[in-house]
Amino acid sequence: MADIILGIESSCDDTSAAVIRDGWLLSNVIASQDVHKAYGGVVPELASRAHELNIVPVVSEAVARAGIKTSDLTAIAFTRGPGLLGSLLVGTSFAKALGLALDIPIVMVNHLQGHLLADFIRVPGGEVREPEFPYLCLLVSGGNSQIVRVDSPLEYTILGQTIDDAVGEAFDKCSKMMGLGYPGGPVIDRLAAQGDPKRFKFAKPHIPGLDYSFSGVKTSLLYFVRDEIAKDPDFMEKNKEDICASFQKTLIDILMDKLVKAARQTGIRDITIGGGVSANSGLRQRILQEGEKRGWRTFLPEFKFTTDNAAMIAIAGYYHYLAGDRTPLDVAPVSRVSDF
After folding, report:
1. Which residues contact 139 (CB under 8 A, 6 or more apart)?
2. Any bridge partners for residue 18, and if so which?
3. Domain span including residue 176
């Protein structure tokens, strides 16, 4: 009998539901929230209200696209955390209610683990190419920047992580600083493609081990733009492509220096990336180049699996279900990784 898992993701501002049968993706539906653009960032209260409006139609659409009935479901996987507590509460509560109504188990999933396993989502008609354990994952998003050793679907160790801002946060804050809008990552990536990445230099932190820091890079950009605009009020508009290209290159250099170091220390040659920033074209190109240079097998998730999505929650939940993991109905969502 097939194991059919419904995945529910509601950690931030995307409401998503997906259906997986024995590891193969049947559907993946995402409802995004445009309301936050006006505020330059996600407003938690608005996000949770939007999830309440979206959760029922999104789940219904995912089930319909999968060509199944809710009675066919084996289990429900949901994001317990980390994320925005109000948003997580909507997904968690819905999973509990539906699981209770269908009399099937629910399985909680760490949102970050979903990103780690995105390469194991099998799409009908697509190429099946998966990393071998153990592998390293560069997990980069708006809330996290980590190098993770993945020993099995359910076993992983964080080798290094940011000690201050995440790289996605650096993209967003600096985009806002330059008046380029939100979310900043896609805007900077688009402008960077038209600029000279070697024109300007920004400070790089010297952090021991495999940990990251991005606060100094932001400060370096802030002072640079401030000083240049004082000389020429039109400096930003005249040079925004080169600024974005140089800034993006600096962030990618920081990420890749530590990833190369981690691969050398562990001897692991299967390398993956995950999280929202893994959609960045400069980072994707750079990791492929480093892979060719260093003999890595590199794995890039499809763009639709880089941002928050329920397919990655469903695949992680599938492995938890196979391992016999079940979640009690009195479980509460958590906002931080340390609470998991």
Report:
1. 112, 115, 116, 145, 146, 147, 148, 273, 274, 275
2. 7, 28
3. 135-301
Map tokens 């692991």 to a residue.
268
* pLDDT of 135 higher than 80: yes
Q: Check the CA dihedral 40-45-48-49 and report its sign.
A: negative
Residue 148, pLDDT score: 98
Q: Tens digit of pLDDT for each residue in 34-43?
A: 655 655 667 8
Residue type, 88: L
Structure tokens at 95: 């999973």
Beta strand 75-81 with 4-9 is parallel
Q: Summarize the confidence of residues 155-167 as an average pLDDT.
A: 95
The SS3 call for residue 92 is helix
Q: How far apart are CA 309 and CA 303, in angstroms?
A: 11
Q: Indicate the residue type of 100.
A: L
3-state helix, strand, coil in the chain (%, to 5): 50, 20, 30
Question: Residue 129 domain-assigned?
Answer: no
Cβ atoms within 10 A of the Cβ of 291, count?
Answer: 18
What is the model's pLDDT at position 27? 98
pLDDT tens track for 43-102: 877 889 989 999 999 999 999 999 999 999 999 999 999 999 999 999 999 999 999 999
Looking at the structure, tell me whether residues 72 and 164 fall in a common domain: no
Asked if residue 139 lies in contact with residue 145, where contact means CB atoms within 8 angstroms, the answer is yes
Residue 243: closest CA among 191, 187, 289: 191
How far apart are alpha carbons 68 and 85 in whole angstroms? 31
Looking at the fold, whether 315 and 294 belong to one and the same domain comes out as no
| Tally of domains within the chain | 2
Is 198's pLDDT higher than 60? yes
